[in-house]
Amino acid sequence: MAREMTAKQRVAAEALQAARAAGMALTEYARAHGLNARQVHDSISALRRSGALPPTERPRKRKSQFVAVRVVEPARPSSAAAGIVCRVIHSGGVVIECGQWPPAAWLSSLASGRMDAAP
Fold first, then answer.
1. pTM score > 0.70 for this model?
2. pLDDT tens, position by position, 49-69
3. 3-state SS string for 2-46
């Protein structure tokens, strides 16, 4: 049983078709015609998920499994930092300092954002 499209989904599907016919990017077309580009893209995504529209031709970008690491020399080593082998600085301001290299699985669990990173 086919589901009826909402008014926003109909407008978005028509915008997608018109943008393709005009050789324009969907965002560019939406803005040129006074449409909210975010709503148009969200409606198109919903239609694709429901199967009402075919999937996009472009491959979806996958999140990298690598974590950005920046290695820096301390400006001046303090006596407290002398025994530190590893320092993890979270974007939220949390600093974890280790006297020996932690297990790779523990570091991986920190990078994945799991709530419980206990070894």
1. no
2. 888 888 877 776 777 777 777
3. CCCCCHHHHHHHHHHHHHHHHCCCHHHHHHHCCCCHHHHHHHHHH
Domain boundaries along the sequence of the chain = 7-50, 62-119
Side-chain half-sphere of 45: how many Cα atoms within 13 Å?
A: 7
> CA separation (Å) from 86 to 56, 81, 97, 100?
43, 10, 6, 7
Identify the band that residue 113 occupies on the pLDDT scale cut at 50, 70 and 90.
Answer: low
Note the pLDDT tens digit of each residue in 77-109: 555 556 778 888 877 778 888 888 888 888 777
Q: How many other CB atoms are found less than 10 A from the CB of residue 43? A: 23
For residue 93, give the 3-state DSSP assignment: coil
Question: Cβ-count burial of 61 within 10 angstroms (0-12 exposed, 13-18 middle, 19+ buried)?
Answer: exposed
Alpha-carbon distances of 71 from 68, 74, 76, rounded to whole Å:
10, 10, 15
| Residue 119 CB contacts under 8 Å (≥ 6 apart), including other chains | 102, 103, 105, 106
